[in-house]
Amino acid sequence: MRAAYDTNVRLRPHLFVEHDRVLAERHPLASEDVHFSRALVAAVLEDLTRPGDRVLDPFAGYGTTLQVAEAMGRQAVGVELLPERCAAAAAAAPASLVLQGEARHLSLLVDGPFDLVLTSPPYMAEDDGPEDPLSGYNGASSYKKYLADLRDILAQCQDLLTPQGHVVVNVANIDSGAHFTPLAWDVGRLLSEVGRLTQDVFVCWDRSWHDLAGDYLLVARPQVARQQG
Length: 229
Hints:
Layout: E1 14-17, H1 19-25, H2 38-48, E2 54-57, H3 64-71, E3 75-80, H4 83-92, E4 97-100, H5 106-109, E5 114-119, H6 143-159, E6 161-175, E7 180-181, H7 183-194, E8 196-205, E9 212-221, H8 224-228
Parallel strand pairs: 1-8, 2-3, 2-5, 3-4, 5-6
Antiparallel strand pairs: 6-7, 6-9, 8-9
Helix pairs in contact: 2-3, 6-7
């Protein structure tokens, strides 16, 4: 077993991602905005988990996290709102558990503890329209409400961790040319409010991706008092 608090368990400081490889990996039903890479998932799993560890993705999408986790001998659970994506994730990772539901209700849908929560949430820019990305773009939201809802989801993720566990979020800032949204920095602030932010890992692309600016893996752990308790 790991020590109660092992500061040596850290993610590598940067990762390189190939644009064309991500395009080749993408599910045929996925939109152009889906850029979560299998290489990122594999690196996080290799650095922060061991075979047999439990891994959760609260925005499972087409099953990238589950597929890689399953191949690497981890026990994977995914929550996904849209039924067609649930079906795709289940097909990609048949030995994993895929649950249909809203990430807002995460603590009611899954049983912890997990050694790792790894995800890339649906993005929203400050100047986006009112559609709610956390509800499959149904219903109205705002950037302020989106961040508040995301904060609650991240708090639930922290509560589902083992004392030695990690939450890792792949998120980027958004630069449309007309407006810059510091989404990654806002999510980092949220993680520091609900847990203890420990790393920002640079995701380096060989070619620029759509309207993404800085791309990161943000790493958070439970508060020290909880670890020692």
